[in-house]
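Sequence in, structure out.
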Amino acid sequence: MGAIMSGVRGGLGNRVTNLAQIRFVQKILNGDITAVEIEQNVRQQDHARTLTFVINNSCNLSCRHCYLQVESLTTTILRSEEWTRVFTSALQQNPDLICLSGKEIFLGQTGVDALNSLSQLKKKFSAGTRIGAITNGTLLHKHRSMVEQVDLDYLDISFDGGSEAHDALRGAGSFAAAAKNAAWTSQIFGNRLFAGLTVQRANFRAMANAITEITGLGIQTIGCGFYQRVPYSDETLALTDSELDEFFESLATLADVNLKQPTTLLFDLNVATFEASIAFMRSRWFAPEQFLTDERGEIFNEYLLPNGLRLQFSFAPYPTTIFKTARITPEGNYLAAEDTLDTRFYRVRTLGNVRDFDYDLGRLHEHASQQPRVKRIFSDYSEYVLPRFQEAFAIHTMLSKKTSTADTRTTRSLAPALV
């Protein structure tokens, strides 16, 4: 679930033809590559790497679906000067993206100071690293001058549907508060402003309304992740397999939405959003023969509906651990992507702390890559997850062969693929 890690990440990059990455994914699905080879490939790829820094453990909202609930930190939160040292090391690693998030980054002064520090350091090092931030949007007006001045490559505001669905999940008045700030930030950021939406039972049948209300704020791209069940959030929000199928099928009806501007829905489908990924593979939208790639190595299917709505399905059926994206918690712990969802296990699954490596993320990453936990993520994937992906692909292949040419034309006419 990349969306959990770093939001929409600025959307997909420029289109390139990365046949090696396409073949890698196709071999995974076909069973033409061993688990050992998958691990080697992930470890050795020159990934466009993302580092996500969770700045604080506080929020002004109490969202029903929030997974980022930590009862107690393992040690004290990093001080401002420590964040500066970590950011300096991070920029020296030259990742593709550094994302700042939190329970709410703009609550208190820590996140604001961190954003200022990171922005200044980027200018100092003339780094090519992109910088992004994630917020619930309700407190942006308190820091308007700073937001207007920092050099953000993207800003994500969380909108979980239109006003009714959003407020049901996040609290009465939260949509209006975020919408008011989205109106002026959209004027500043243009297409660098994104909405982050978590698809769940409270909103999955109201996507048309979500698109209408969110794009009415000037937002052009809505990044969609999928709620993942954890015991300490509202488990009733998780979608069943049949509801996931219903959701993917309903996307074709979005061709009837009256758009005021070109709009993109970007779906993040990966190992962390496993059940949603399998449902995607059952849907009309899964087309491995039409995989596209962007400059960062993302694999995706893309469609343009008659009304100008663009659907993008980013698909990564392999673990990334720390080699493509990693998380640093408020107290400096280093976590693999697959270990970010359930905060109950943060304490035992941390791969090291920045303080123990003199804030050198390069040394910490090398240490982390050799830890048994990373190896365990790959082995669990091989035993429990990979067979399900391959089974779903086998079913897709069988059904595709049975589908008549006429049926295929009918399906594709609803969403012509972009090539």
